From TrEMBL:
<protein>
    <submittedName>
        <fullName>Glycosyl hydrolases family 2</fullName>
    </submittedName>
</protein>
<dbReference type="InterPro" id="IPR006101">
    <property type="entry name" value="Glyco_hydro_2"/>
</dbReference>
<dbReference type="Pfam" id="PF00703">
    <property type="entry name" value="Glyco_hydro_2"/>
</dbReference>
<keyword id="KW-0326">Glycosidase</keyword>
<dbReference type="InterPro" id="IPR013783">
    <property type="entry name" value="Ig-like_fold"/>
</dbReference>
<feature type="domain" description="Glycoside hydrolase family 2">
    <location>
        <begin position="687"/>
        <end position="782"/>
    </location>
</feature>
<keyword id="KW-0378">Hydrolase</keyword>
<dbReference type="Pfam" id="PF18565">
    <property type="entry name" value="Glyco_hydro2_C5"/>
</dbReference>
<dbReference type="InterPro" id="IPR036156">
    <property type="entry name" value="Beta-gal/glucu_dom_sf"/>
</dbReference>
<dbReference type="InterPro" id="IPR051913">
    <property type="entry name" value="GH2_Domain-Containing"/>
</dbReference>
<dbReference type="Pfam" id="PF02836">
    <property type="entry name" value="Glyco_hydro_2_C"/>
</dbReference>
<dbReference type="Pfam" id="PF16355">
    <property type="entry name" value="DUF4982"/>
</dbReference>
<dbReference type="InterPro" id="IPR008979">
    <property type="entry name" value="Galactose-bd-like_sf"/>
</dbReference>
<comment type="similarity">
    <text>Belongs to the glycosyl hydrolase 2 family.</text>
</comment>
<dbReference type="GO" id="GO:0005975">
    <property type="term" value="P:carbohydrate metabolic process"/>
</dbReference>
<dbReference type="InterPro" id="IPR032311">
    <property type="entry name" value="DUF4982"/>
</dbReference>
<feature type="domain" description="DUF4982">
    <location>
        <begin position="615"/>
        <end position="671"/>
    </location>
</feature>
Amino acid sequence: MKRESFNQGWTYHKENKQEIQTVDLPHDAMIHETRNPESPGTHANAYFPGGVYIYEKTFEAPEQWREKTVSFEFEGVYKNSTVFINGKEAGGRPYGYVPFTVCADGLLNYGGKNTIRVVADNSKLPNSRWYSGGGIYRPVNLLVGNKTHIRWQGIKISTLSYAPAKIQVEVEASGGEITVEILYGNKVVAEGTGSSLVLEIPAAKLWSDDAPNRYQCRVTLKEDGRIVDEGTEDFGIRLVEWSGKGLFINGKETLLRGCCIHHDNGILGACTYAEAEERRVRILKESGYNAIRMSHHPASRSLLEACDRYGMYVMDETFDMWYNHKNKYDYASDFDEWYRKDMKAMVDQDFNHPSVIMYSIGNEVSEPYQERGVKLTKEMTEYLHSLDRNRAVTAGINLMIISLASKGKGIYKEEGGLREEKKDSGKKKQVSGSLFFNIMTSMIGTGMNRMANSRKADKVTSPCLDALDIAGYNYASGRYPLEGKQHPDRIVVGSETFPQDIAKNWKMVKKYPYLIGDFMWTGWDYIGEAAIGSWNYQGVSMRNVPYPWLLADVGAIDIIGTVGAQAKYASTVWGLEEKPYIGVRPVNHPGVRVSKAVWRGTNAMNSWAWKNCDGNKAEVEVYADAAKVELFVNGRSVGRKKIKEYKAMFKIRYKSGTITAVSYDGAGRETGRSELKSASGKTRIAAVPEEKTIKAGDIAFIDISIVGENGIVECNEDHKLNVTVKNGELLGFGSANPCTEEQFDSGEYTTYYGRALAAVRSKAAGELAVVVSGDHLPAVEVKVVVTK
């Protein structure tokens, strides 16, 4: 079927609101709402209100469509969507994270005007433990084909072997004769006929994280010798195997350097733009990660395509809950009716993406303490095997949660995910199950890693874990050394871990063959679940997250893509850094105690630019794969220390100028050095496009900062800035400030530690101009060349 974008020229309004807007998709209606401290979603949803979001588009249906089949493909609508075509209900989906199609046959006015209407009901809150977004936040496509056609997602390619390289191609069509060609570049390297065939690829270039080579499968459908349909699918030749000896990609043992990520794109809200998804994957890959875990729902098509291109392994996940609610209005209400359909939707989308190596059937569910939950674990695993025999099935299992539930101390409640907590006054208040868990974890700290070490915990969790191909452990690293003897056939992955534990965890990953990798929480910051990872100077903890907290503030990489010390610590542990890394904790809060969340190991950043802070206490972290490190300030040594777990800490006084770290091996020989300089002179606005040339309609990202005359970002000077655009549209502008009332769609935002980011969509070929001004600083203009 012919597939084309159906994203332009929609109208949008919120139910019971008069204002009608013209919008292009994807569109996150929620990110444009006015946040409210009384929102029932509270800080989990970043205090955004919900609503019923209504979209309409008028289009022509040519007369020739009468003899064809026409469908609309929705890549994701949050949530409870209903689609109407010319006033008649045509389809929809309760779950907000899976693609679905709506057939328009028999509902169109052929040769005339038609109206498609989409209603997304996100009015009942809370329905998510993080910021979900709302509306048609992923793209929509029009599918038009002959009556005889290749079915939607009807081409599936599997790798059978890699030496020699053999693939299986299966095609679902409504009739006709099928021809299959495999291309590398523009050259046909294999071909055959039939709806199910095995092809050998000569001198095959395999796909892996180190070499993400891709082929194209071209399928031609003929009827009476005439071509009636064509379809193409990109794929990679890679075989996934797993055993107690490890995880193997094309026969090579592979360790997963992973992180968890949510679905939102920061300043763009929940909107899924291909450029934003690619940017995120690129930055993560450049930072040393080779794997991501989707948290906690199926990934977008654009994200998977980017992972295919960059060589990023993916654990794609189905649900955050099963039949028990974590929030009063969440997916648990629809689970029994829809979970198999939604699992199939995930598999059908993921099937040809070589990046996807594992499916996860859930995250931190408590149900497996019950017989019904164990049976469901087995049933879901077997169902995924029936849909796709080429990938492993896992789950993010929190052993402590299941163990507590088995004792009648479950943190989630059937009647709506609420649990009572005593206040200091002795009175009780209702808190969400998620919040209760986060508060409890904050109190226990990394000691949670040992909470499931008991024989009783092992006994109650083993039926669930043993039903999986690979047992995913959330915060249970204390069990890693035990499993080789207690469960010699079990394969384990750290599906969710504290980032500060990476040195200990990675040592065990390298030691135990059955432990195949680590996914830290979290690789990239996100909206909602506010302050879960915050190290702040306002005394905010999970017990007290007041409005207007916005971000989780937990990412190893912040919400605008700035790579932080937490990410660099991990890449040092992984052996990917040649030079020592210098991380400096903020020095502009003298005498104020920092409140530390357990989901963050540091708030240090790679900067020695702290204006007006001379004499303040400074905590400097140096990461290196070395024996010792020496630190110099303005050429004077302030000490030499042993490296422990790839880290050394120096407590000194800040003095502007230059700070240098020199690493040494055991014999005292220098192995590397790095330095940071302070910003100097009068500060100004700097704006740098990440892309010099883009195509019309594409998105450009503009890095904005406050810099000194030497071009160094000044961390202790922030300004409210304004962004305007010529020959383009400002999609979002903001900073990584976790607590603010500013909005990403206003065009006005204050930098945070000197940095901000703008996302701008070009309109037409020519020149895209972005002007940044504000706070009595000279305005700057940057230009991006836009081609057709």
